[in-house]
Write a structure and sequence with these properties.
Number of strands: 5
Strand order of the largest sheet: 1-4-5-3-2
Low-confidence stretches: none
Strand content: 15-25%
Number of helices: 3
Distance between the termini: 24 Å
Helix content: 25-40%
Structural class: alpha/beta
Oligomer: single chain
Radius of gyration: 14 Å
């Protein structure tokens, strides 16, 4: 299967779209998302909000790599439609490392809620 690409959320306009978007929460993650009509043919755009309270830089970057890979895989399987802006973060109450299984469950629950 051909790997899917992800784009980063950049610029004030894209962050403004996200701020007006809907929120989905599945402990320990939350996902803020919106679908933008003028970007229907673009790949999924992904951003992160991870506090320094979550851990050191290595832990935060590991979390981002895991999420990026799971979202990339789901996007390649066409479970996440094109033109979506996603902002994924960790709940502030969670100070422990989030497992791959937890990330997978949260993203799958989000995809299920779209249908």
């Amino acid at each position: 299967m051909k790997p899917s690409t992800l784009w980063k959320i950049r610029g004030k306009a894209q962050w403004a779209y996200i701020s007006k978007g809907k929120t989905f929460s599945h402990a320990p993650l939350w996902i803020k998302w919106c679908e933008v009509e003028e970007h229907k043919s673009d790949p999924v755009r992904l951003g992160f909000a991870v506090s320094k309270k979550y851990g050191n830089a290595v832990t935060r970057n590991k979390f981002k790599r895991r999420v990026r890979e799971i979202v990339r895989r789901k996007s390649a399987e066409h479970q996440i439609p094109k033109g979506f802006f996603l902002l994924i973060g960790v709940s502030t109450s969670n100070k422990n490392s989030v497992s791959n299984a937890d990330i997978e469950k949260a993203v799958s629950a989000f995809i299920y809620s779209l249908k």
